[in-house]
Every structure is written in structure tokens, then in C-alpha cells.
Design brief:
The chain is 38% helix and 27% strand. It contains 13 helices and 17 strands. It is an alpha/beta fold and 400 residues long. It is elongated.
Amino acid sequence: MRQTDIAIIGGGLAGSTAAAMLGRAGVSAILIEPHRLHPPELRCEKIGGQPQIDRLAKTGLLDAVFDAATHDHEIWLARFGRVIDKRPSQQHGFLYETLVNTVRGEIPSSVETIHAKAVSIRTSDDRQTIGLSTGEDISARLVVLANGASVGLRDQLKIGRPVISACHSISVGFDIAPKDRDTFEFPALTYFAEATRHRTAYLTLFPIGATMRGNLFVYREANDPWVRAMRRTPEAALDECLPKLRALIGDYTISGDVKIRPIDLYESDNVVQPGIVLVGDAFASPCPGSGCGTDKVFTDVVQLCSVHIPNWLASPGMGAEKIGQYYSDPLKLECDAWAKKKAFTLRAVTLENSLYWRMQRWIRFFGRLGEGIVRRARETLPGELALVGCALVVMSVPAM
């Protein structure tokens, strides 16, 4: 039986990041993952915004990830068939499998990777035993469960996964190209929904290498006829939910495999148990449209690997009182609550027609429009005129 301090089950973004961080810190760790290379999967396909970049930087993996990504530099914001702002962008795009395999490449050789499936687990206040599909057992002081939505091991430990919002949203990923011309006019584009009846939050288009990638976020049932249409006639389905898009960006074609992923929001319970912690999607699912998935992963892993594991390994045992410190970590609690709030706010602002939510949509629209006008004024007008124009715009935008 192989012995280690930390056994990580699952080599997706959370598990691979944890393996890289622990290995660099000199902690004895083993990563258990059946796939030598992460297979194609529709999950996070870009990182952007300073808070998200700061969270990535804390993992020590920022340079490697950005070297494998495509920076779009500028993004256009649009609604109602018109561009309302062109702003500098910190977005870096990549396919999810590229992201995960890049992070795996940063795992030090001191961390052994076992290509097998974890099929059983026994926990205690001291050491944990993991049974592998190869027939081998691994003994560890702590198990980091990072196997996403898989339920087999959690069922053995009686860890529940109550659903907070069934089919909360649907994410769609595809490649898009201009028709009868070489490139789109925009470097990257976010197009916001035009009306609640379209049940669409937004479409974001961004480059990955020489390919323009599309991520679309809608609120429909998994068996909605529109979902089938998106697979069979994606251009017509996209026109249906964003009718004025084509007039703005020109004729286009959608090529390759259209990936569609319905999202249930859930949060695990009965998690404070000796010898095991859950990170990333293994603990709770984010809404991809809210853009919080990587924030949750990096917050979980950084707090666990930088704060809690070093403290836990400094003393004997791995009882529930230690594990509870991770789940009550203030930064983790704050990030989890923020991500959940954003998920429900985005759904409400997309679908609800009460006076409050109609006002929220207009506030967001005029806020973005105002920022665009201010930005253009600063770029084109003399200093004093720009200040006057900016003041007039600010006075005309509704307060939050």
C-alpha cells in the first residue's frame, strides 16, 4: 500500500491546481486521475477581470495559463443591434481541456500521478484508504475530493447533493466564423439579450488562436425544442434568441460540434467528516453564465493548500474539527455566497418582468452606454470638453 500525506481524487482544474500547489510546496501528494490527457469538455473557456486574475495569480500558475491562452485585448459590448461600448479587455480564452492539461504540466515530478479510477474510500480520524480500479490501495492522511459531479464516492460517505435549482441554466459552446469575409470586425464581443421572451442572458464571442469561439447562456428546459434546434440548425436557433445580432456582426456560420450543457445548481451537505475535503464542483456547482466557476475553484484550492493543509499536517490526526475549519473559512464562505447570488441575479434579470427587474435591465444598459460615451469622449475631445461631456453623461444615467 502506497503512503502519502495528501491523495487528490480527480485531475480536472481543481484537482490539478491542488496537485501543482502542494507539489511546489514540498507536500507529499498523489493525484488519482484515469485520463492521461483531459478530454474535451464544455466548461470554463476564458479568464478575465482583475479579481479573477488575482485569484489565479495566488495559485502560482498565472504565467503558464496565460502562455497557453489567447488575449483579445479589446471587447465590444452590444445590445439592441448596436455597439454601446468598446473597452480594454483582460480576457484570455482557451478550451477547457487546454487549461487543465496546461495546469497538469506544472505539477512537479515529486507528485505521482496514478492513472486509475478511485472506486472505494474508507475514512477515519487518522488515515484514509482509497481503493483503485487496478486493485491497489492508497493510504493518505487527507483525501481531497475533486471529481466534479461524480457521486459514487460521495454516496459511500453519505455526502448528499441537494439540488438548489434544477436546470438552472444551459450553456452552449461553438465555433463561429464570418461568411464571405476573412474576419469579424470586432476582436471580441459580448451581446446582451434583447427581450425576456428570448430567455437568453448573453452571448460572448472571443478568440482562441485563429478561431472565434462562442459561449451562449440561456434559461430553458433541457427538452425545449430550441435546444434540439441549436444542435441541428444552430444559425437559425441563434437568430431566434438574438434577432438583431446578425445585422450587427454580419452573416456567419457555426461549425464543428455544438456542445450543450444543462446546469443544476447544487451544494453538498454532510461534508464535515474526518479525513476528506471537497473542492470545486465536487462541493458546489456554479452557474457558468455568472462567470464565477474559476473564482470558486481557485478560492477553494488556494485556501485549502496555502492555509489549512499546512496547519493540519503540523499536528497528528485529521479529525472533523480540522476539516470544519476549511468549510468555515471566511474567504471561501464569501466567494460561495457571492457566486450563488450572482447565479440567481443573472437569471432574474434575464427572465423577470416585475418593475424592479425591468429597471435593473435599463440601469445596466444605460450604465454600460454611459461608460462607452465617457470613454469615447476622453479619447476624442479636448480635456475640458471631455470633462463636461462626462459630467452630463453621469448625470443622465440612473443611480443604482
